[in-house]
Amino acid sequence: MEEKDLELLNTFAENLSKAVVKQCTDDKLLDGQMLTVEELNDKWRTSAAEYMAAAVPQIAEYPLAAIAWACYMGMGAAVLWDKSWGEYKDAEDWYSLMASPRGFDEMDEYVVECLVGYSLTSAEAQKLENTIRKCAYLAETFIRKEGVEPQSVMAFHIFARTAKVFFELGVSLELYHRGYKYVKMNVNFEGDAPVS
Hints:
Radius of gyration: 17 Å
Distance between the termini: 49 Å
Helix content: 55-70%
Number of helices: 7
């Protein structure tokens, strides 16, 4: 891939990430930033091919689901990381962990109901679904603005970056829901005690 194409993809992902974080923050589901877990980024790298194989055929008829389901996968990954990392850390294909119980079409419901623990008819589940839908619409708009030829190599790469951003968004949403946040700390590197 040429340097200019890589730069375009990086800029696209960065701008999309900022837009969805803003949307989720406006909806009070994040506090202005993504929460990153390197182990889960590694799990995305080992599972992305399986996710893409399931999602890409959905793009023509269900583009929002193809985008949004990566967010639900990230949410499920965050739950497993938080509750059962020891049990799942050696699994390579985390997509199948989320999709196998009900299939790709109902992966969102499985994650929300069985992993996150919301009743599908609850206000929390509805708010989450509405926010993720708004973010998927944002992503679809970003993709269209790029003006890449449909079904081209670049279109695939743009979609792959979008799915990665949405996986990271899902991780962030669920970690935030579970009370995780970044805390600024002052540390005295000459000793072990924090600086007051």
